[in-house]
Write a sequence for this structure.
């Protein structure tokens, strides 16, 4: 899916990682979010005439395509499904808001710590992570585009968090060396992700 594209479908990511991003006129990229298995792709703008963002794979991916009309028909037949999808969209929006707060008000170290903890919570929900850590295919360049930092700054931040004994990100693996201390340091409260699920009648 590309920014400015019309008449696109939505997808459910079955395997792999993807990212959604905005591309500026000067070629700079701001990654809005990363998608992991179980996430929707393109749901946020599926009802808009034109897509407001682009999506590209981070790894090899498998997706299930959902045509817009099929989605609307399913909503009409199954209001509980519509409620669940609205919950997913609302949860995604809450995470985008949290990322905006991170870029605007957290220093680079708290921003990185919060981001890695959030990814851990999301991956734990789908059985791909735990409080010990998780596999992560993101490069320092992708982290830089997501967190509003340079790749050099990302490297320095990760090194200092590792040297502080809180988290190690090396060779595609995030290891929480001291989960509780990292959580306190980042002021991380996962309640905004509403892991309990949607309120269904």
């Amino acid at each position: 899916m590309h920014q400015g594209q019309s008449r696109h479908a939505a997808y459910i990511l079955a395997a792999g990682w993807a990212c959604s991003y905005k591309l500026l006129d000067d070629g700079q990229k701001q990654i809005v979010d990363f998608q992991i298995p179980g996430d929707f792709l393109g749901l946020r703008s599926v009802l808009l005439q034109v897509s407001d963002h682009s999506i590209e794979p981070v790894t090899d991916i498998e997706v299930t395509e959902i045509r817009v009309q099929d989605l609307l028909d399913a909503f009409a037949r199954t209001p509980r499904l519509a409620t669940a999808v609205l919950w997913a969209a609302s949860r995604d929006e809450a995470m985008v808001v949290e990322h905006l707060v991170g870029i605007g008000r957290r220093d680079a170290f708290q921003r990185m710590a919060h981001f890695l903890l959030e990814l851990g919570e999301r991956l734990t929900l789908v059985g791909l992570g735990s409080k010990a850590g998780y596999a992560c295919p993101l490069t320092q360049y992708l982290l830089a585009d997501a967190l509003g930092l340079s790749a050099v700054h990302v490297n320095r931040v990760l090194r200092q968090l590792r040297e502080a004994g809180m988290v190690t990100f090396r060779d595609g693996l995030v290891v929480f060396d001291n989960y509780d201390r990292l959580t306190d340091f980042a002021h991380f409260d996962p309640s905004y992700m509403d892991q309990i699920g949607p309120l269904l009648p």
Remarks:
- The chain has two domains: 10-77, 97-193.
- The radius of gyration is 17 Å.
- The chain is about 40% helix and 20% strand.
